[in-house]
From TrEMBL:
This is Redoxin domain-containing protein. It comes from the Bacteria. The keyword ATP-binding does not apply. CDD domains: TlpA_like_family. SUPFAM superfamilies: Thioredoxin-like (SSF52833). InterPro entries: AhpC/TSA, DUF6263, Thioredoxin-like_sf, Thioredoxin_CS, Thioredoxin_domain, Thioredoxin_ResA/DsbE_sf. Keywords: Redox-active center, Signal. GO terms for molecular function: antioxidant activity; oxidoreductase activity.
Length: 761
């Protein structure tokens, strides 16, 4: 019994001793696989496998490892799509710079030196390997700098995360301890001859917390497997942190040796053609000579490679050469549909296939996209126009479009039918306008149509088009019934705040009530005025109630965006000035480009009243206060909202990555130059570059010789100002209240009119 006790005590001492120092035999090979999953405000999912081989101990007693990155798996921010898997490198997506480092370092050796307690002393060879790998890529200077800085400063901590920092004191004496640098507390959990378990924890007053569990090999001191769960806290001033959520991490060791499949030629081609490289670009964009040279170099080898074909399509589409559109369309038709899946090119190919190859070809393309939102957009905004007259003549594309529509309707998948049925019912009626039984039958189909079918196929638009056909065919009872039923449906959809198309439905609803008004005008003028009031009320009250698809709805229906002005005229004619003034204020805010017309109406009707007073008290009353900001100019100057008080301020939100932004910048710069010369009144202007890099913005402004003042976004200002698209213009009044000018509206003319109003005595 005494011998057995001595043996047990000896085993305990041995495991305790071994577990407290790194003791990896020379030539031992192993792999660490780590996975970090970020959740909350931002999401990410990254997995890396590193292969290690011990080279033994150096003169200082530290263990030297030969190391390579042998596998990387990175998912997109949503976590549902893999953008890099080094075992299938040809499916890589280069839309993120996050894939560049693992691609460059894959299977490239570097050295890691670790002391007996598990502390990483040095990591050597990463920068030299990285520089060699990226040299052929011709990365933009800012991206290359970013990669090298991250490798130089951050990779040591990455390696440290793979090794457990062992305690200084013996576990037999002190089974718990605290890391001096991180503040994390560790406690011995359980132990046996195969594994020693340590529990880790940390909390602080900000709400930050970390819980972890590590299994350590008692012989080598290496992590066998681990799991940690970290949650973000709040920033120091007690306000909610910018990031919420946390990170779950895991690690495991394996004796397997991964041999990565490398294709350096492919990766070099892929990066050179990516956004991050200057290999085929000049200062203004793609260089046509370099692009053509790249095509000649790569076409034969990569003509069946998805990445290459998509990159080629993107380059040709962005080129501004004489025949670029024709080249793009031709290349699009030659590209297999499966390559285009998940890209905007597939949407473009639908039309090209229909009009150049026929309905059957377009139907094949649609199989890859019919479940997507882009298919709804194409069907409602593009293909449907084939059934509209062309220069007062039948549209030559109508026949092909009709055959395709029939293919959709005959497909076994109900999704096709849901999206195409409303359009099909109208097209049938349009083709047989004199077939009264068919018109009545189709009207009945709309009336019994489910909400899913109605909303999936933009039923409101086509029901009102059929209503018009019924009226002209003098089938009045069915027309009235269809109109009333459609209004009831559209009111339901407009009231549904979860309906993503509620404002498009609302715009159609406004027209439906206007049709009611027109129908009742000759019979009951009082009732008709109530219908017109409904049409005015459902007209957009601001930019947030204006939907992109409504432009197409109005093209088909020959309707108007707003019926408010017509109702204002009726109110003024009937002497209801108080209600008319309220609607004038609403209309100015909804359509500031109509300001001169509304001002004219006001002056004619109220010649003795001050329009400036009305504008400030009634129109601007609904404007929100402009949020404060503190931003730095690309030249280092600081800007705050207070710097521009007592004057009109134009804020221009843009980015060098934004095509429409770059297209309008020459005009914007001209405006600023004239403003600085005193040609546009005593106003202020500030542009804010968003989702961009300062070096890139500086270079872009310098290359184009622009003089506009540019501040860099703090990633907060665009959220505070509720910017949903780029470019966006915000006009801020001298009183500090703001108005968002819808894209496409003449913001310069609106500013001029506002200055005119403010100059009134």
């Amino acid at each position: 019994m005494k011998k057995l006790l001595v043996l047990v005590l000896g085993l305990t001492a041995a495991t305790t001793t071994y577990a407290q120092q790194l003791n990896v035999p020379k030539n031992k090979q192993f792999e660490f696989t780590t996975r970090n999953t970020q959740h909350g405000t931002f999401t990410s999912d990254e997995q890396f496998t590193y292969a290690f081989r011990s080279l033994g101990k150096n003169a200082s007693g530290n263990t030297v490892f030969d190391c390579k990155l042998v596998k990387a798996i990175i998912k997109d921010r949503k976590g549902d799509k893999t953008i890099l898997h080094t075992d299938s490198i040809y499916n890589t997506s280069l839309n993120s710079t996050g894939v560049l480092f693992p691609i460059a370092m894959l299977n490239n050796p570097f050295t890691v030196v670790v002391d007996p307690k598990g502390k990483v002393i040095s990591v050597d060879g990463v920068l030299s390997s990285l520089k060699t790998a990226i040299r052929p890529w011709s990365l933009t200077p800012e991206i290359e700098k970013q990669l090298l800085e991250n490798a130089d400063k951050g990779f040591t901590s990455t390696m440290q995360g793979l090794f457990f920092l062992l305690p200084e004191k013996s576990l037999a004496i002190s089974p718990q301890w605290q890391n001096k640098d991180s503040g994390t507390k560790f406690k011995l959990g359980s132990k046996n001859a195969k594994s020693i378990i340590f529990n880790a924890s940390k909390t602080d007053t900000s709400g930050y917390s970390l819980q972890g569990k590590y299994a350590i090999d008692p012989l080598t001191g290496l992590i066998q497997h681990s799991q940690t769960d970290m949650k973000y806290g709040k920033i120091d001033d007690g306000l909610p942190a910018k990031f919420s959520g946390g990170v779950r991490s895991s690690q495991k060791i394996s004796a397997d040796i991964t041999k990565p499949q490398l294709d350096t030629a492919w990766t070099n081609m892929a990066v050179k053609l990516s956004y991050w490289s200057t290999a085929i670009k000049n200062n203004l964009g793609y260089d046509s000579v370099k692009v053509q040279s790249a095509f000649e170099a790569y076409d034969q080898r990569y003509s069946k490679d998805r990445y290459y074909m998509l990159s080629k399509l993107g380059m040709v589409q962005q080129m501004r050469s004489k025949n670029s559109y024709q080249k793009y369309d031709s290349l699009l038709l030659l590209t297999p549909n499966k390559y285009l899946e998940g890209t905007h090119h597939l949407f473009n190919k639908l039309g090209e296939a229909l009009y150049n190859e026929g309905p059957a070809s377009a139907y094949d393309v649609s199989k890859y996209v019919y479940k997507e939102e882009s298919f709804y957009d194409w069907l409602q905004n593009s293909m449907s126009q084939s059934f509209l007259p062309y220069d007062d003549r039948p549209n030559p594309s109508a026949g092909k479009a009709y055959e395709l529509l029939k293919l959709f309707m005959n497909d076994k998948d109900s999704i096709y039918q849901q999206k195409a049925n409303s359009l099909f019912l109208w097209v049938m009626a349009e083709r047989e306008k004199k077939n009264t039984p068919l018109l009545i039958k189709n009207a009945a189909e709309f009336i019994k149509m489910s909400d899913v079918q109605m909303q999936s196929g933009n039923g409101g638009r086509y029901a009102l088009l059929l209503h018009s056909i019924l009226v002209k065919a003098e089938v009045r009872a069915e027309a009235d019934s269809l109109l009333s039923h459609t209004i009831k449906k559209l009111e339901k959809y407009t009231a549904d705040t979860k309906n993503p198309r509620r404002y498009a439905d609302q715009n159609i609803l406004a027209y439906a009530w206007y049709l009611k008004y027109q129908s009742a005008l000759s019979k009951d003028s009082l009732q008709a005025l109530q219908y017109l009031a409904k049409a005015a009320d459902y007209s957009p009250k601001g930019n947030n109630e204006k939907a992109h698809i409504s432009f197409y709805d109005r093209t088909f229906l020959k309707s108007k965006e707003s019926y408010r002005q017509e109702y204002i005229d009726k109110l003024l004619s009937s002497g209801n000035e108080k209600q008319a003034l309220k609607l004038i204020a609403v209309d100015i805010n909804a359509n500031p480009e109509n300001l001169p017309e509304m001002q004219k109406i006001y002056k004619n009707r109220f010649p003795g009243k001050d329009f400036k007073y009305f504008f400030i008290q009634d129109v601007m009353a609904s404007w929100n206060a402009a949020p404060d900001f503190k931003l730095k100019n690309i030249d280092g100057k600081e800007h705050t909202l207070a710097d521009y008080k007592n004057k009109w301020l134009i804020l221009d939100f843009w980015g060098t990555w934004c095509g429409p932004c770059k297209e309008e910048l020459p005009s914007v710069n001209k405006f600023y130059t004239e403003l600085a010369a005193g040609k546009h009144g005593d106003n202020n202007f500030l542009s804010i570059a968003c989702n961009d890099q300062e070096n890139k913005v500086k270079s872009f402004i310098a290359q184009n010789k622009y003089s506009i003042p540019v501040a860099m976004s703090d990633n907060k200002v665009e959220r505070d100002y509720k910017i949903t698209g780029y470019p966006s213009k915000i006009l801020i009044s001298p009183e500090g209240k703001m108005m968002n000018v819808q894209f496409g509206k003449d913001w310069k003319a609106i500013l001029k009119q506002l200055n005119t109003i403010y100059s009134m005595n």
